[in-house]
């Protein structure tokens, strides 16, 4: 009987020891499977193309760096429109006066005389244009000065052109000048004209410019075939 009791006690002790081992092992495994704490959004570094880390505050959209759009060009006043047309007229008149001293064929000479006459008439009408009983005074601006400067540069270039090449170069300059004038009239001057006398004058100027351009193109084409 005593031997049996000792055997039972040994078995109980072994059983208790085994249970303790199992409990300890299970606790260790649970600790190993606990996920790491999540990093708050926005604090995680990101990596750019160079491998350097950046944070959310370091990134910018293209809109942040985009330049502000340019301010729209205000429509010209009646005085500015007249000053721009006057600059065109004065250039055409000066170009014809220069061409008179150079070698032009009969048709180009006739064209030059027509340009001188009609641009002189247009300039005189511009200077006497009135609205509501008052003269519309031309207004000189940076744009007007720029157009006058372009005309002077063209005249200097023509002056340095040889006699053999002068007629074609002169006709091309007349074409370029009238194309620019028509573009300016159509895109800016006529749409901005709210005063009826000024608008009528600009429309009449446009009709003459278009006719001059058509005639100049035809002459340049025919001179190239000779």
* Percent of sequence in beta strands: under 5%
Q: What's the total helix number?
A: 7
Following the backbone from N to C, one meets helices and strands in this order, namely HEEHHHEEHHH
Q: Tell me about the largest β-sheet.
A: 2 strands, antiparallel
Average pLDDT taken over every residue: 81
In the sheet with the most strands, the strands line up as: 1-2
Described by the principal axes of the CA atoms, the overall outline is globular
Helix-and-strand structural type: mainly alpha
Comma- or semicolon-separated keywords:
226 residues, mainly alpha, 69% helix, 7 helices, two-stranded antiparallel sheet, globular, 4% strand
What do these coordinates show?
With 226 residues, the chain is mainly alpha-helical. The chain has seven helices and four strands, in the order H-E-E-H-H-H-E-E-H-H-H. The protein has helices at residues 2-32, 62-65, 78-99, 106-127, 142-159, 163-192, 196-225, and strands at 46-47, 53-54, 130-131, 134-135. The strands form two sheets. A two-stranded antiparallel ribbon has the order 1-2. Strands 3-4 form a two-stranded antiparallel sheet. Residues 21-26 and 28-34 have low confidence and may be disordered.
Please outline what is shown here:
The chain is built from seven helices and four strands. The chain has 226 residues and is mainly alpha-helical.
Topology:
Blueprint: H1 2-32, E1 46-47, E2 53-54, H2 62-65, H3 78-99, H4 106-127, E3 130-131, E4 134-135, H5 142-159, H6 163-192, H7 196-225
Antiparallel strand pairs: 1-2, 3-4
